[in-house]
Write a structure and sequence with these properties.
295 residues; mainly alpha; Serine Threonine Protein Phosphatase 5, Tetratricopeptide repeat; 17 helices; elongated; disordered N terminus
Length: 295
């Protein structure tokens, strides 16, 4: 889960106390333009203006950091990491750049180094709820469930209105099939932020496990309104429709989910269930075997 709260972080003193030369003033002017484009999600334009800022002032750490964010958003991950490295080289105490580099490393799959960066800034971010969510996310991916749980609980302690902390805390319970505890966390997340589509989908899944299919359908539809192309949500709705007896509509969604992500074993499992319900044993076994191989 991407955290973007540092999207536009930069040292304010650079804008007020470092304007001694025309070159620096030009650099700051381009930097501000880059920030506006970054905020508007015009990432290629943002990169252009940060380039111009750096040409004017090659030691402008903030310009490298924010260009790194733009590169990351523009799916240029290697370039983003180079920018974050440069920002840190120029300012060894640029804690936000360490945080952003950690996010990029995690996105790349380099979880150990991502965690190492977060550990370096633990003191600086000791009061940040979202810092603990980010660290918990990486620990969770590293299968350190107890460490992740502790971080999510610290995040909630620091900010009881952090919906993402509740969602991710619930995932730990969900993965351990402690569905009542998971559902409680997900519902709290949704109460705090109705746009928590991941929590909405997971509540739908749990309600389906409880055979409350009509209620489950409402939650998964809410998730899909927020993120209509998410293959897991589409598959989940397909599964719910199968259980409501709407076999063809369910099959259509499950197949759509597979087209979007053909590595989701649950979709093949559900497709196998469809063929089982239709009495096609051969096709059912074929899809169940596919699901098993992917799982």
């Amino acid at each position: 889960m991407k955290i973007t709260k540092y999207l536009l972080i930069f040292n304010i003193f650079l804008l007020t106390g470092s304007c001694g030369t025309d070159k620096t003033e030009e650099s700051i002017k381009f930097f501000k333009r880059g920030n506006y484009k970054l905020k508007d999600k015009e990432y290629q334009e943002a990169i252009h203006w940060f380039d111009e800022s750096i040409i004017q002032n090659p030691k402008f750490a903030d310009a490298y950091n924010n260009r790194g964010l733009a590169n990351q958003k523009f799916d240029k991950l290697e370039e983003a990491l180079i920018d974050f490295d440069k920002a840190i080289e120029l300012d060894k105490k640029y804690w936000e750049a360490y945080y952003n580099r950690s996010e990029a490393l995690a996105q790349k799959g380099d979880l150990q180094n991502a965690l190492a960066d977060l550990e370096k800034i633990a003191v600086a971010f000791k009061d940040s709820s979202f810092y603990y969510v980010s660290r918990g996310n990486i620990k969770s991916q590293l299968k350190n469930s107890s460490g992740a749980t502790a971080d999510y609980e610290k995040a909630i302690q620091l900010n009881p209105k952090n919906a993402e902390a509740y969602t991710n805390h619930g995932v730990i319970y969900f993965e351990n099939k402690e569905y009542n505890l998971a559902k409680s966390d997900f519902l709290k997340a949704i109460e705090l932020n109705s746009k928590q589509d991941f929590a909405l989908n997971n509540v739908a899944f749990i309600l389906a496990e409880e055979k409350k299919y009509d209620e489950a359908l409402k939650y998964v539809d809410s998730a899909l309104k927020i993120n209509p192309t998410q293959p897991f949500y589409i598959n989940n709705k397909g599964m719910i429709l199968l259980n409501l007896g709407k076999l063809e509509a369910g099959k259509e969604l499950i197949e759509k989910s597979i087209r979007l992500d053909d590595k989701n074993y649950l979709a093949y499992q559900n497709l196998g269930h469809y063929f089982e319900l239709k009495g096609n044993k051969t096709k059912a076994i074929e899809n169940f075997d596919k699901a098993k191989s992917l799982q």
